[in-house]
Design a protein that fits this description.
Helix 1 runs antiparallel to helix 2. The longest helix has 25 residues. The protein has one domain. Helix content is 84%, strand content 0%. It has three helices and no strands.
Length: 81
């Protein structure tokens, strides 16, 4: 669950940083290539969409995926020892 919260924070930071880059471009402070500008604007939407799905409680599928990842990590760690 801590990883889930950390991921949300990372996404929130990515949204803020990406919006700042787009704003800097639009205000002429730091110009971007047209393709990069379009890509950043698209990413903002994608990041915000993902954050919105993470706002509510996790559904059973998400919990199952997290548990499975934790098991795989533990198995890999055990094999490395």
């Amino acid at each position: 669950m801590a990883n889930y919260e950390r991921r949300r924070e990372q996404l929130e930071n990515l949204v803020a940083e990406t919006k700042e880059k787009v704003a800097d471009h639009e205000q002429g402070r730091s110009l971007l290539e047209d393709e990069e500008h379009a890509l950043l604007r698209k990413r903002i939407g994608l990041y915000e969409k993902k954050l919105k799905t993470m706002e509510g409680p996790m559904n059973e599928r998400e919990v199952d995926r997290l548990v499975e990842r934790m098991k795989m990590r533990a198995e890999r760690h055990h094999m490395e020892l």
